[in-house]
Structure formats: C-alpha cells, structure tokens
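Sequence in, structure out.
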Amino acid sequence: MADLVLATDDHGDPEIFASLQGEGPSAGQPVAFIRLSRCNLACVWCDTAYTWHFEGDERPHRGGVTYERGANQVKVSPAKAAAKIAALRQRRLVITGGEPLLQCGALADMLAILPDIEVEVETNGTTKASAHVDIRVDQYNVSPKLAHSGNLRELALIEERLDAYATDPRAFFKFVIAQPEDVDEVLALQRRYMFKRGHVFLMPEGTDSATLREREEWLAPLCLEHGFRMSDRLHIHLYGDERAT
C-alpha cells in the first residue's frame, strides 16, 4: 500500500485540519481538510507554492521563493491519514493540494477506511480520478487555469477533461480572476463547454482582505451581468494567508 505525500503545516506535521470551507459552493461549511503535495501545473500566483515549488524547480512564481522539499513534504500511510481525519469528527472531507488526483491509488486506500464521510475534491481539471476514488466523490471543485496563471494553455485546459467535468453534475467550476479582462476568457470557455447554469463561480485573486475587497467591487457587477456566482475567500478574512486554515 503506497503512502500519501502530504504538505506540512508550520510545525512540520501533515496538513490535516478542521476549518470552514472558504471558497466555492460549500463556503462556510465545517469540514476536515487534507492537503496533498505535488502539482502538475505552476500558477504564478499560487498561494500554496510550498506544495510544489521546491529547490531546483525553475518554473516561475511571483514570490520567487523555493522551498526545501524535506521540510515541506511528509509521507503518511492511508491508515494514519484516515485516523487523523476521523479524529477531527467532521461529516465532510475536502481533499486539496497541490493537485490531489495525482495520488489516486493511496487516496482510494484512505477513503476505503472512511466509508461514512462526504468527499469534496479540489482539482485543477487536468486529471482524472480513478474509479475507486470517483465513486466516493460527492463534489468536484474544478479550477481551470486562465492565461494569467502563467501555464501553457495546452497543459492547463485539456478539452477531454473539461468535457467530462462539464457533463458531471457533481462538478462546479471556480475561476480565479485578477482583472476584468479575465472574465472574457471565462465567457469563451462557457460557450465552448456549456457549463451548467449556477455551477460557475468567479473568485478574486488575492491573499489579503484589502485586495479581495477591492477586486470584488468590480467583479460583483460582472457576475450580475453574465449570470455567474461569486466566491469570496472566507478563510483569508478569518485567518489570513496561513497554512492549515
């Protein structure tokens, strides 16, 4: 049985914690979180760069900081991870990253030990859950990366995967918006993939309350104009840009 590769919290422990979901359709719900390490994309504004931007990784990130892999990754058995999640006594589990679906084998083993918990997966939309993981998922939060993320389009927007998520009633789409022009790109994707009405969220990019509020001032009218839902980042207002929140 393979181990899970997890991110670490500020104390070097596996990043498994209870909090309120801060984004998307489940915002405000009390949940357990597990944050996996590693990602197949490299967003220049990523707020969890410690899950992938390790020493020697030359992919750009605006912070310019690289992280020591040994201090920011930890291997945990599926059984130990499941025990830590169960101890949090939450009804819902959010599996996040990095890109968590890169570790489907170990995730399936972990979820088999947690048969009664609801499962929410946060993914960049480029990957596919294995059958043993997919059957346990109640909700996908799919966050396709727009051009301002710095990723090549052919890596970030894979038609086969977006077609599959667009037809999955469990999938919601959350787009990070840094400037009003980004909404034009979302509109083009909406026309191409016909995302379900009410399943598209626009979320301001930002890691502090002032930036989020400033961008929400012009984002809210655009959501009204185009019929999109808006997502805040509740955890930033409550806890700041901190690990395990």
